[in-house]
Amino acid sequence: MYVRLHSVNISRNADIIVTHIVACLMQSLCFCVYAACGCPLYWKAPMFYGAGGERTGFVSVHSFIATWRKLLHSCHDDASRFIYLLAKPGCNYLEQEDFIPLLQDIVDTHPGLTFLKDAPEFHSRYITTVIQRIYYIVNRSWTGRITMMELRRSNFLQTLALLEEEDDINQITDYFSYEHFYVIYCKFWELDTDHDLYIDPKDLARYNDHASSNRIIERLFSGAVTRGNAVQREGRMSYAEFVWFLISEEDKKNHTSIEYWFRCMDADGDGVLSMFELEYFYEEQCERMERMGIEPLPFQDLLCQMLDLVKPESPGKITLGDLKRCRMAHIFFDTFFNLEKYLDHEQRDPFAVQKVSVYMFNVKYTCSANISYSISDAGGAF
Ligand SMILES: [Ca+2]
Ligand SMILES: [Ca+2]
After folding, report:
1. Is 158 in a helix, a strand, or coil?
2. Domain residue limits at 235
3. The dihedral of CA 215, 220, 222, 224: what is its sign?
4. Whose atoms come closest to the Cα of 271: which ligand?
5. Helix axes 329-337, 339-346, angle to 10 degrees
6. What pLDDT score does 240 carry?
7. What's the whole-model pTM score?
8. Cα 280–Cα 283–Cα 285 angle in degrees, nearest 5
9. 140 alpha carbon to ligand 1 midpoint, in Å?
10. Which keywords does this Swiss-Prot/TrEMBL entry list (predicted)?
11. Are residue 320 and residue 215 in the same domain, yes or no?
Protein backbone atom coordinates (compact mmCIF):
# COMPACT_ATOMS: atom_id res chain seq x y z
CA MET A 1 0.00 0.00 0.00
CA TYR A 2 1.46 3.33 -1.07
CA VAL A 3 0.41 6.87 -0.53
CA ARG A 4 1.80 9.12 -3.21
CA LEU A 5 1.58 12.82 -3.83
CA HIS A 6 0.87 13.51 -7.49
CA SER A 7 2.16 16.65 -9.10
CA VAL A 8 0.41 19.76 -7.94
CA ASN A 9 0.17 22.98 -9.91
CA ILE A 10 2.71 25.39 -8.55
CA SER A 11 0.78 28.37 -7.35
CA ARG A 12 0.89 30.85 -4.56
CA ASN A 13 -0.92 28.34 -2.42
CA ALA A 14 1.07 25.32 -3.47
CA ASP A 15 2.50 24.73 -0.02
CA ILE A 16 -0.93 24.85 1.55
CA ILE A 17 -2.41 22.51 -1.06
CA VAL A 18 0.43 20.04 -0.62
CA THR A 19 0.05 20.16 3.14
CA HIS A 20 -3.67 19.52 2.86
CA ILE A 21 -3.15 16.60 0.52
CA VAL A 22 -0.52 15.11 2.80
CA ALA A 23 -2.84 15.58 5.73
CA CYS A 24 -5.82 13.91 4.02
CA LEU A 25 -3.77 10.98 2.82
CA MET A 26 -2.15 10.55 6.17
CA GLN A 27 -5.49 10.63 7.90
CA SER A 28 -6.84 7.81 5.78
CA LEU A 29 -3.65 5.87 6.29
CA CYS A 30 -3.16 6.49 9.94
CA PHE A 31 -5.89 4.32 11.36
CA CYS A 32 -4.50 1.06 10.05
CA VAL A 33 -0.93 2.07 10.87
CA TYR A 34 -1.97 3.33 14.26
CA ALA A 35 -3.64 -0.01 14.97
CA ALA A 36 -0.63 -1.89 13.64
CA CYS A 37 2.07 -0.21 15.68
CA GLY A 38 0.36 1.65 18.50
CA CYS A 39 1.75 5.02 17.43
CA PRO A 40 -0.13 7.94 19.07
CA LEU A 41 -2.43 9.50 16.48
CA TYR A 42 -0.91 12.98 16.31
CA TRP A 43 2.58 11.59 15.90
CA LYS A 44 1.52 10.73 12.36
CA ALA A 45 3.02 13.78 10.65
CA PRO A 46 6.45 13.40 12.31
CA MET A 47 6.24 9.67 11.57
CA PHE A 48 5.36 10.39 7.94
CA TYR A 49 8.32 12.71 7.56
CA GLY A 50 10.54 10.46 9.68
CA ALA A 51 9.75 7.54 7.37
CA GLY A 52 10.92 9.57 4.38
CA GLY A 53 7.55 11.02 3.34
CA GLU A 54 8.79 14.58 2.99
CA ARG A 55 11.55 13.60 0.59
CA THR A 56 9.57 11.24 -1.60
CA GLY A 57 5.97 12.43 -1.13
CA PHE A 58 4.86 8.97 -0.07
CA VAL A 59 5.51 6.32 2.52
CA SER A 60 4.64 2.66 2.44
CA VAL A 61 2.94 1.12 5.41
CA HIS A 62 5.96 -1.15 5.53
CA SER A 63 8.44 1.73 5.86
CA PHE A 64 6.10 3.42 8.35
CA ILE A 65 6.09 0.34 10.58
CA ALA A 66 9.82 -0.20 10.05
CA THR A 67 10.49 3.35 11.26
CA TRP A 68 8.28 2.80 14.29
CA ARG A 69 10.02 -0.50 15.12
CA LYS A 70 13.41 1.17 14.80
CA LEU A 71 12.22 3.86 17.17
CA LEU A 72 11.01 1.33 19.71
CA HIS A 73 14.31 -0.44 19.48
CA SER A 74 16.65 2.56 19.75
CA CYS A 75 14.67 4.91 21.97
CA HIS A 76 13.40 3.73 25.29
CA ASP A 77 10.59 6.09 26.16
CA ASP A 78 8.09 8.38 24.47
CA ALA A 79 10.15 11.50 25.13
CA SER A 80 13.25 10.14 23.40
CA ARG A 81 11.17 8.77 20.50
CA PHE A 82 9.39 12.07 20.05
CA ILE A 83 12.67 14.00 19.98
CA TYR A 84 14.23 11.48 17.61
CA LEU A 85 11.33 11.94 15.19
CA LEU A 86 11.04 15.72 15.31
CA ALA A 87 14.62 16.89 15.80
CA LYS A 88 17.02 17.76 13.01
CA PRO A 89 19.44 14.94 12.17
CA GLY A 90 22.06 14.50 14.86
CA CYS A 91 20.28 16.78 17.35
CA ASN A 92 19.00 15.58 20.71
CA TYR A 93 16.88 18.67 21.38
CA LEU A 94 13.94 20.42 19.73
CA GLU A 95 14.01 23.92 18.33
CA GLN A 96 10.85 25.90 17.73
CA GLU A 97 10.58 25.22 14.00
CA ASP A 98 10.82 21.46 14.60
CA PHE A 99 7.22 21.56 15.88
CA ILE A 100 5.74 23.09 12.71
CA PRO A 101 4.91 19.86 10.76
CA LEU A 102 3.28 18.34 13.84
CA LEU A 103 1.20 21.43 14.50
CA GLN A 104 0.29 21.98 10.85
CA ASP A 105 -1.06 18.44 10.81
CA ILE A 106 -3.14 19.14 13.93
CA VAL A 107 -4.52 22.27 12.26
CA ASP A 108 -5.33 20.24 9.15
CA THR A 109 -6.88 17.20 10.77
CA HIS A 110 -8.14 17.85 14.30
CA PRO A 111 -11.97 17.87 14.34
CA GLY A 112 -11.98 20.93 16.62
CA LEU A 113 -10.14 23.02 14.02
CA THR A 114 -12.05 22.15 10.86
CA PHE A 115 -13.33 25.72 10.64
CA LEU A 116 -9.73 26.82 10.01
CA LYS A 117 -9.58 24.95 6.71
CA ASP A 118 -10.73 27.99 4.73
CA ALA A 119 -8.59 30.45 6.66
CA PRO A 120 -4.97 29.52 5.99
CA GLU A 121 -3.86 32.97 7.14
CA PHE A 122 -4.72 31.90 10.68
CA HIS A 123 -2.67 28.72 10.57
CA SER A 124 0.72 30.27 11.20
CA ARG A 125 -0.62 32.57 13.94
CA TYR A 126 -2.21 29.63 15.75
CA ILE A 127 0.95 27.55 15.29
CA THR A 128 3.17 30.39 16.55
CA THR A 129 0.98 30.73 19.63
CA VAL A 130 1.04 27.01 20.42
CA ILE A 131 4.82 26.86 19.95
CA GLN A 132 5.33 29.80 22.31
CA ARG A 133 3.07 28.20 24.89
CA ILE A 134 5.02 24.94 24.59
CA TYR A 135 8.36 26.71 25.08
CA TYR A 136 6.96 28.82 27.89
CA ILE A 137 5.98 25.75 29.90
CA VAL A 138 8.42 23.05 28.77
CA ASN A 139 11.70 24.84 28.03
CA ARG A 140 12.53 25.54 31.66
CA SER A 141 16.14 26.37 30.76
CA TRP A 142 15.16 29.31 28.46
CA THR A 143 17.65 28.05 25.87
CA GLY A 144 15.20 27.75 22.97
CA ARG A 145 16.09 24.04 22.87
CA ILE A 146 13.79 21.51 24.51
CA THR A 147 15.83 18.64 25.90
CA MET A 148 14.69 15.12 26.66
CA MET A 149 14.76 15.85 30.37
CA GLU A 150 12.57 18.93 29.93
CA LEU A 151 10.10 17.00 27.81
CA ARG A 152 9.92 14.16 30.34
CA ARG A 153 9.28 16.58 33.17
CA SER A 154 6.46 18.30 31.31
CA ASN A 155 2.91 17.24 30.51
CA PHE A 156 3.31 17.93 26.80
CA LEU A 157 3.19 14.38 25.44
CA GLN A 158 0.24 13.49 27.66
CA THR A 159 -1.55 16.62 26.45
CA LEU A 160 -0.77 15.76 22.84
CA ALA A 161 -2.30 12.32 23.43
CA LEU A 162 -5.46 13.96 24.80
CA LEU A 163 -6.10 15.58 21.42
CA GLU A 164 -6.91 12.13 20.12
CA GLU A 165 -9.77 11.70 22.57
CA GLU A 166 -11.16 15.24 22.72
CA ASP A 167 -12.87 16.73 19.69
CA ASP A 168 -13.38 20.12 21.33
CA ILE A 169 -9.91 21.62 21.20
CA ASN A 170 -10.91 24.36 23.65
CA GLN A 171 -11.14 21.71 26.35
CA ILE A 172 -7.38 21.21 25.97
CA THR A 173 -6.48 24.33 27.89
CA ASP A 174 -2.76 23.55 28.01
CA TYR A 175 -1.06 24.64 24.76
CA PHE A 176 -3.77 23.92 22.18
CA SER A 177 -6.98 25.80 23.01
CA TYR A 178 -8.15 27.83 20.01
CA GLU A 179 -10.05 30.15 22.29
CA HIS A 180 -6.90 31.01 24.20
CA PHE A 181 -5.06 31.64 20.94
CA TYR A 182 -7.86 33.89 19.77
CA VAL A 183 -7.86 35.97 22.94
CA ILE A 184 -4.08 36.43 22.86
CA TYR A 185 -4.13 37.34 19.18
CA CYS A 186 -7.01 39.78 19.59
CA LYS A 187 -5.15 41.52 22.40
CA PHE A 188 -2.11 41.84 20.15
CA TRP A 189 -4.18 43.01 17.19
CA GLU A 190 -5.68 45.80 19.28
CA LEU A 191 -2.21 47.06 20.20
CA ASP A 192 -0.60 46.57 16.80
CA THR A 193 -2.45 49.42 15.15
CA ASP A 194 -0.48 49.34 11.89
CA HIS A 195 -0.73 45.52 11.77
CA ASP A 196 2.88 44.87 10.85
CA LEU A 197 2.99 42.19 13.58
CA TYR A 198 5.33 44.19 15.77
CA ILE A 199 4.54 46.48 18.65
CA ASP A 200 6.66 49.21 20.21
CA PRO A 201 6.79 50.41 23.85
CA LYS A 202 3.98 52.92 23.26
CA ASP A 203 1.73 50.19 21.82
CA LEU A 204 2.48 47.87 24.72
CA ALA A 205 1.81 50.62 27.26
CA ARG A 206 -1.84 50.54 26.13
CA TYR A 207 -2.18 46.91 27.25
CA ASN A 208 -5.01 46.67 29.78
CA ASP A 209 -5.44 50.42 29.89
CA HIS A 210 -1.87 51.39 30.83
CA ALA A 211 -1.70 48.93 33.72
CA SER A 212 2.06 48.37 33.44
CA SER A 213 4.55 51.02 34.47
CA ASN A 214 6.80 52.72 31.93
CA ARG A 215 9.89 51.50 33.74
CA ILE A 216 8.93 47.86 33.43
CA ILE A 217 7.98 48.37 29.78
CA GLU A 218 11.40 49.86 29.19
CA ARG A 219 12.95 46.74 30.74
CA LEU A 220 10.76 44.48 28.58
CA PHE A 221 12.22 46.10 25.48
CA SER A 222 15.77 46.02 26.81
CA GLY A 223 16.30 42.39 25.84
CA ALA A 224 16.03 41.13 29.44
CA VAL A 225 13.41 38.55 28.50
CA THR A 226 13.89 38.17 24.78
CA ARG A 227 16.58 36.71 22.62
CA GLY A 228 18.05 40.10 21.83
CA ASN A 229 18.25 39.85 18.05
CA ALA A 230 18.45 42.78 15.66
CA VAL A 231 14.70 43.28 15.73
CA GLN A 232 14.78 43.54 19.50
CA ARG A 233 17.40 46.27 19.35
CA GLU A 234 15.07 48.30 17.21
CA GLY A 235 12.69 48.48 20.16
CA ARG A 236 10.03 46.24 18.71
CA MET A 237 8.28 43.23 20.19
CA SER A 238 7.13 40.43 17.90
CA TYR A 239 3.87 38.55 18.25
CA ALA A 240 5.76 35.51 19.60
CA GLU A 241 7.35 37.67 22.30
CA PHE A 242 3.98 39.20 23.12
CA VAL A 243 2.60 35.71 23.87
CA TRP A 244 5.26 35.39 26.61
CA PHE A 245 4.41 38.84 27.93
CA LEU A 246 0.68 38.17 28.08
CA ILE A 247 0.98 34.82 29.83
CA SER A 248 3.47 36.29 32.30
CA GLU A 249 1.29 39.32 32.94
CA GLU A 250 -1.90 37.34 33.46
CA ASP A 251 -0.42 34.61 35.65
CA LYS A 252 2.46 35.82 37.80
CA LYS A 253 2.48 32.62 39.86
CA ASN A 254 3.97 30.10 37.44
CA HIS A 255 7.72 29.55 37.48
CA THR A 256 8.41 30.92 34.00
CA SER A 257 6.48 34.07 34.86
CA ILE A 258 8.45 34.54 38.10
CA GLU A 259 11.69 34.14 36.11
CA TYR A 260 10.40 36.51 33.42
CA TRP A 261 9.63 39.35 35.83
CA PHE A 262 12.70 38.70 37.95
CA ARG A 263 14.87 39.20 34.87
CA CYS A 264 13.06 42.46 34.18
CA MET A 265 13.42 43.81 37.70
CA ASP A 266 17.04 42.70 38.08
CA ALA A 267 18.25 45.69 36.09
CA ASP A 268 21.98 45.09 36.73
CA GLY A 269 21.65 41.34 36.11
CA ASP A 270 23.51 40.31 39.29
CA GLY A 271 20.91 37.70 40.27
CA VAL A 272 19.45 39.58 43.23
CA LEU A 273 16.89 42.35 43.57
CA SER A 274 18.57 45.07 45.56
CA MET A 275 16.76 47.68 47.59
CA PHE A 276 17.89 50.20 44.99
CA GLU A 277 16.17 48.23 42.19
CA LEU A 278 12.98 47.92 44.22
CA GLU A 279 12.96 51.62 44.96
CA TYR A 280 13.51 52.44 41.30
CA PHE A 281 10.34 50.58 40.30
CA TYR A 282 8.28 51.71 43.30
CA GLU A 283 9.09 55.37 42.59
CA GLU A 284 6.97 55.36 39.46
CA GLN A 285 4.11 53.62 41.27
CA CYS A 286 4.22 56.41 43.89
CA GLU A 287 4.11 59.10 41.23
CA ARG A 288 1.12 57.46 39.59
CA MET A 289 -0.70 57.09 42.92
CA GLU A 290 -0.08 60.72 43.76
CA ARG A 291 -1.53 61.76 40.40
CA MET A 292 -4.62 59.72 41.29
CA GLY A 293 -4.88 61.43 44.67
CA ILE A 294 -3.88 58.30 46.59
CA GLU A 295 -1.29 58.67 49.31
CA PRO A 296 1.38 56.02 48.70
CA LEU A 297 3.01 54.05 51.46
CA PRO A 298 6.55 55.42 52.11
CA PHE A 299 9.17 53.15 50.53
CA GLN A 300 10.66 52.03 53.86
CA ASP A 301 7.24 50.85 55.09
CA LEU A 302 6.53 49.13 51.81
CA LEU A 303 9.93 47.46 51.95
CA CYS A 304 9.19 46.02 55.40
CA GLN A 305 5.89 44.71 54.07
CA MET A 306 7.55 43.10 51.06
CA LEU A 307 10.41 41.56 53.04
CA ASP A 308 7.81 40.13 55.37
CA LEU A 309 5.95 38.70 52.39
CA VAL A 310 8.99 37.21 50.64
CA LYS A 311 11.13 36.34 53.67
CA PRO A 312 14.45 36.29 51.77
CA GLU A 313 17.14 33.90 53.01
CA SER A 314 19.80 36.65 52.98
CA PRO A 315 18.54 39.82 54.62
CA GLY A 316 17.98 42.67 52.20
CA LYS A 317 18.57 40.60 49.05
CA ILE A 318 15.72 39.02 47.17
CA THR A 319 16.63 36.10 44.93
CA LEU A 320 14.68 34.17 42.35
CA GLY A 321 14.54 31.21 44.74
CA ASP A 322 13.04 33.40 47.48
CA LEU A 323 10.26 34.52 45.15
CA LYS A 324 9.48 30.99 43.99
CA ARG A 325 9.40 29.73 47.56
CA CYS A 326 7.21 32.45 49.04
CA ARG A 327 4.19 31.76 46.77
CA MET A 328 3.39 35.48 46.84
CA ALA A 329 5.40 36.51 43.79
CA HIS A 330 2.30 37.83 42.00
CA ILE A 331 1.62 40.29 44.81
CA PHE A 332 5.28 41.27 44.98
CA PHE A 333 5.53 41.99 41.23
CA ASP A 334 2.23 43.84 40.96
CA THR A 335 3.35 46.07 43.83
CA PHE A 336 6.29 47.25 41.76
CA PHE A 337 4.89 47.63 38.28
CA ASN A 338 1.15 47.00 37.91
CA LEU A 339 -0.71 49.72 39.75
CA GLU A 340 -4.23 48.49 39.15
CA LYS A 341 -3.49 45.00 40.43
CA TYR A 342 -1.43 46.38 43.32
CA LEU A 343 -4.35 48.51 44.50
CA ASP A 344 -6.62 45.53 44.05
CA HIS A 345 -4.37 43.33 46.21
CA GLU A 346 -4.15 46.13 48.78
CA GLN A 347 -7.86 45.91 49.36
CA ARG A 348 -7.67 42.19 50.10
CA ASP A 349 -5.92 40.05 52.58
CA PRO A 350 -2.92 38.71 50.62
CA PHE A 351 -3.14 35.37 52.40
CA ALA A 352 -6.74 34.99 51.32
CA VAL A 353 -5.76 35.78 47.74
CA GLN A 354 -3.15 33.05 47.87
CA LYS A 355 -5.80 30.42 48.44
CA VAL A 356 -7.68 31.32 45.31
CA SER A 357 -6.36 29.39 42.38
CA VAL A 358 -6.96 31.57 39.36
CA TYR A 359 -6.34 30.01 36.00
CA MET A 360 -3.94 31.86 33.75
CA PHE A 361 -6.43 33.26 31.32
CA ASN A 362 -8.47 35.61 33.44
CA VAL A 363 -8.33 37.74 30.38
CA LYS A 364 -10.24 35.10 28.45
CA TYR A 365 -13.40 35.83 30.31
CA THR A 366 -13.29 39.58 29.90
CA CYS A 367 -12.40 39.20 26.26
CA SER A 368 -14.68 36.41 25.17
CA ALA A 369 -17.66 38.35 26.51
CA ASN A 370 -17.44 40.66 23.52
CA ILE A 371 -15.68 38.44 21.03
CA SER A 372 -17.42 35.82 19.01
CA TYR A 373 -14.73 33.64 17.56
CA SER A 374 -16.51 32.16 14.60
CA ILE A 375 -14.26 32.19 11.59
CA SER A 376 -16.50 34.52 9.60
CA ASP A 377 -16.20 37.18 12.28
CA ALA A 378 -12.50 36.52 12.54
CA GLY A 379 -12.04 36.97 8.81
CA GLY A 380 -13.51 40.43 9.16
CA ALA A 381 -11.43 41.29 12.14
CA PHE A 382 -8.04 40.35 10.76
CA1 LIG B 1 2.99 47.59 14.61
CA1 LIG C 1 20.20 43.26 40.76
Report:
1. helix
2. 186-365
3. positive
4. 2
5. 120
6. 95
7. 0.83
8. 120
9. 29
10. Calcium, Membrane, Metal-binding, Transmembrane, Transmembrane helix
11. yes
